[in-house]
Specification:
The chain is of the alpha+beta class and 91 residues long. Helix content is 20%, strand content 25%. The protein has one domain. The protein starts with a strand and ends with a helix.
Length: 91
């Protein structure tokens, strides 16, 4: 049974109820607990910006992936996109 809040002697010792971590914003290989107390396994895969991404499909598919990546680049030039987000481009 998951626990997301622990009170003892009238004091809150642990409170996860307002946490916002999800599998889609946690790095792959990391674990955490969500607001509901359940264990979360990270799904975000990162790559160096110099890495090459090969897209199986036509030019429109490649453009869709490129546009999605452009929207994911932050100020540190790191890209964070989940496999689910890439799959969603093709469904």
């Amino acid at each position: 049974m998951a626990v997301n809040k622990v009170d003892y002697a009238g004091r809150t010792l642990i409170d996860l109820t307002s946490d916002t971590v999800t599998a889609n914003n946690l790095l792959s290989g990391a674990t955490a607990h969500g607001a509901n107390g359940e264990v979360i396994f990270g799904a975000v895969v990162t790559a160096d910006i110099d890495d090459t991404l090969t897209v199986a499909g036509d030019a429109a598919d490649a453009k869709a992936v490129g546009d999605a990546l452009d929207n994911k680049v932050d100020t540190s030039s790191m890209v964070a996109i989940t496999a689910a987000e890439i799959d969603a481009l093709f469904t």
